[in-house]
């Protein structure tokens, strides 16, 4: 099992790379990982599908920034944390708060990610 510090590091790196480092962001996921974002949507399974998800979300805004809260709760190989998303486009700047729950393998790679948010949460910043 990955230790709590390695998991926290993966989470912070996940947020940092999400802005503009597709390959580096994808490298944080284990083979066969799943992303359900938002919860209730069809999960993206495997790195190819997760990469397509990254492409789709980045096509919706000129710039996307994720800022994790300073509090990340790690329990075993799982973690839960809050973060703020900021989306900038020609139409303006929008944002929302998100709760993510992730699981990790022994190497600290993400095996699953579930994001709790709704389109109604998006507001002008």
Give an overview of the whole structure.
By secondary structure, the protein is an alpha+beta fold. The protein has three helices and seven strands. Strands 1, 2, 3, 4, 5, 6 and 7 form a seven-stranded mixed sheet that branches.
Low-pLDDT runs of 5+ residues are: none
The amount of beta strand, in percent, is over 45%
**Computed structural class:** alpha+beta
Order of SSEs: HHEEHEEEEE
What descriptors fit this protein?
125 residues, alpha+beta, seven-stranded mixed beta sheet, 46% strand
A few lines on this structure:
With 125 residues, this protein is an alpha+beta fold.
Topology:
Elements lengths: L3 H15 L3 H5 L2 E8 L7 E2 L1 H13 L3 E13 L2 E12 L2 E13 L5 E7 L6 E2 L1
Parallel strand pairs: 1-6
Antiparallel strand pairs: 1-2, 3-4, 4-5, 5-6, 5-7
């Amino acid at each position: 099992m990955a230790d709590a510090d390695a998991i926290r590091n993966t989470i912070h790196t996940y947020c940092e790379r999400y802005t503009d480092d597709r390959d580096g962001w994808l490298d944080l996921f284990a083979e066969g990982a799943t992303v359900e974002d938002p919860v209730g949507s069809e999960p993206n399974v495997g790195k190819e599908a997760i990469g397509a998800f990254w492409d789709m979300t980045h096509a919706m805004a000129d710039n996307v920034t994720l800022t994790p809260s300073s509090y990340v709760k790690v329990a075993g190989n799982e973690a839960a944390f809050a973060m703020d998303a900021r989306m900038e486009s020609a139409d303006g700047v929008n944002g929302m708060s998100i709760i993510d729950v992730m699981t990790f393998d022994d190497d600290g790679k993400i095996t699953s990610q579930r994001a709790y948010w709704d389109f109604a949460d998006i507001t002008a910043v």
